[in-house]
Amino acid sequence: MDALSESRHVGDHGDMPSLARSLVAEALGTAFLLIAIVGSGILGERLAAGNVALALLANALATGAALYALIVWLAPLSGAHFNPLVTLVLAFRGDIAARLAGFYVPAQLAGAVVGVAIADAMFDMPVYALSSHLRSGPSQWLSEFLVTFGLIGIVWCCSRLRPSALAGVVAAYIGGGFWFTATDFANPAVALARALTDTFSGIRPMDVPGFLAAEILGALTAVLLFRWLVPNVASSPTALR
Q1: Residue 187: CB partners within 8 Å, gap ≥ 6?
Q2: Element housing 235 (H / E)
Q3: Fewer CB within 10 Å, N or C, the chain?
Q4: What's the CA gap between 208 and 194, in Å, rounded?
Q5: Separation CA 37–CA 194 (nearest Å)
């Protein structure tokens, strides 16, 4: 998306208002993402009357739709990363300044934590409660590796080759991932924040490190492969079309 190349200069000297706007947009977008994930999980579970498949379908559709809207809405302000791994990968490739990435990640984490509290409060749940939802084991870690690998691959390729399609592809992939993987977090900020809600979308705090390790490994593997498939050619107008 065009905002990715534009954000390369955000945070340079004398550009603090632009940096502040970008950070607020990242925090806001990540908060809304967690509101969508956790809120739809709570309501879906309540309305499904014990039908877990129906609750998961509601969770997947709401998350995918919200993610698409958030990316289109906030990409012009910050690039709409909403994910520390996406930010770090784009900084590694040179799409954004390393200094900017250092500000983005805390903003994303803060937004995620706030989003969980808002979602719980909207449905009269404890604002923060450590999750008891068990999510552990090789199948779960493999799923996290796979879904993160795919997400980073999509961002790496589409942001350069099909930027106008990026929002739809990411939203469709994450929404579909609810069904073709056993987990579908693909985001360290999401994993950490979901440990703070004892609801349908939660994850036990003791299970979070395994998810983080799988996500990081998936991202690194994706970078190794897609750096070769889509070389980081000079960011000429032709390359960004």
Answers
A1: 82, 83, 84, 85, 148, 215
A2: none
A3: C
A4: 9
A5: 9
Lookup result for tokens 């609810």 = 178
Strands (E) located in 112-173: none
Please say whether the beta carbons of 128 and 202 come within 8 A: no
DSSP 231: -
Q: What is the pTM of this model?
A: 0.89
Encoded amino acid at 119, one letter: A
3-state helix, strand, coil in the chain (%, to 5): 75, 0, 25
pLDDT tens for the chain, 241 residues long, are 444 444 444 444 455 559 999 999 999 999 999 999 999 999 999 999 999 999 999 999 999 999 999 999 999 999 999 999 999 999 999 999 999 999 999 999 999 999 999 999 999 999 999 999 999 999 999 999 999 999 999 999 999 999 999 999 999 999 999 999 999 999 999 999 999 999 999 999 999 999 999 999 999 999 999 999 998 754 433 333 2
How many C-beta atoms lie closer than 10 Å to residue 180's C-beta?
12
Question: Count of CB atoms within 10 A of residue 106's CB?
Answer: 14
Residue 136 near residue 209, CB atoms below 8 Å: no
